[in-house]
Each structure stands twice: as structure tokens, then as C-alpha cells.
Design goal:
CATH class of the largest domain: Mainly Alpha
Number of strands: 0
Order of helices and strands: HHHHHHHH
CATH topology of the largest domain: Arc Repressor Mutant, subunit A
Strand content: under 5%
Radius of gyration: 24 Å
CATH superfamily of the largest domain: Winged helix-like DNA-binding domain superfamily/Winged helix DNA-binding domain
Length: 170
């Protein structure tokens, strides 16, 4: 397929991409940016498109993957790691606006349980709790990914044992 034919075929299909971009982004400006990125990637990689296959599906896939990549970048960029000794205080009672007495006791017990974990287990556990992927934790702590998984597993098991009284409470 020549570049002119490719451009013509994309122009026929591109009108249906905007509603899909709006469903993904829920914002008109972001949808326009996503549509532009998608079309740019399609033109840049047009040699990867196989003639006779579904062009619309190919473009939808590019758009979906572009949206996911952009979203992951945004999440990573806006994530903050507190590498202090007191990581567990971030979600402690002092940061809570709920003054309900039972939740106060529960939060105190959870904080004490997390605090009692060895540092080597507490840090990977808290990073995972905050949404970091295993490979991201491994990179930041400079330990193998298997060690990260093992330490998080052990931390969960220890916390479950220490907080067993709440197992059926809620």
C-alpha cells in the first residue's frame, strides 16, 4: 500500500477514533492529544501494517496502548517515595480525619504491627502498598525481584498473624 493510499484509508477511519479517545480520557483536549499521538504512531509505523487486515482495529490497538503508556508515565511521575525511617506514618491516625473510636484502635494496632516488622520487610511491603510494582521496588532497593516478592509475602504473613483479632471483625 502506498503512502497516499494509507493516508486515504486512515482518513476514512479516523472519524470513529475520536469517540473512543473520549471514552478513554474523558477530556476533550486529552482526547485530541491521544488521537494525534495515535495517528502519528500509525504514520510512523505504517510499514508494520499488513495489507488486507483490519485498519480500524489496528488503530484502536495503537490508541489503547498509547493511552495505557501515557497513564503509566503519569502515575510514575506523580508518585513520591518517602525514604525516611518512618514510612508507616504516612497512613497513620494523624493523617486521618475520621475520629471514630474503633477505627482509632484499629489504626493504632495496624501501625504498631507494621512498625514491628523488620526494616527489610517493612520497606518493600509499604512500597507495594503504595502501588509500586515488584520490578520497581527491586530497582529502587537494588535487590532481586524474587527477594522483593518473598519479603512482601513474609510481611503480609506476619501482619496477618499479629492482626488475627480483626480477621472477622469487619
Amino acid at each position: 500500500m502506498t503512502a497516499i493510499e494509507f493516508t486515504y484509508n486512515i482518513s476514512k477511519v479516523s472519524k470513529s477514533l475520536k469517540p473512543f479517545a473520549m471514552r478513554l480520557t474523558k477530556d476533550n483536549d486529552d482526547a485530541n492529544d491521544l488521537l494525534q499521538d495515535t495517528l502519528l504512531k500509525a504514520f510512523t509505523n505504517r510499514e508494520k501494517y499488513a495489507d488486507g487486515t483490519n485498519l480500524k482495529a489496528w488503530l484502536y490497538t495503537i490508541m489503547k496502548n498509547t493511552f495505557i503508556t501515557n497513564y503509566q508515565r503519569m502515575v510514575r511521575k506523580n508518585t513520591f517515595i518517602d525514604e525516611s525511617e518512618n514510612l508507616y506514618y504516612i497512613n497513620s491516625l494523624e493523617n486521618s480525619t475520621n475520629n471514630d473510636a474503633p477505627s482509632t484502635f484499629v489504626m493504632n494496632d495496624i501501625n504498631r504491627a507494621v512498625d514491628s516488622l523488620e526494616e527489610s520487610f517493612r520497606t518493600p511491603f509499604m512500597m507495594h502498598y503504595r502501588g509500586f510494582k515488584y520490578h520497581e521496588i527491586a530497582e529502587r532497593l537494588r535487590i532481586p525481584i524474587g527477594t522483593v516478592k518473598n519479603r512482601i509475602h513474609i510481611a503480609r504473613k506476619e501482619l496477618k498473624d499479629k492482626l488475627y483479632v480483626y480477621e472477622h471483625a469487619f
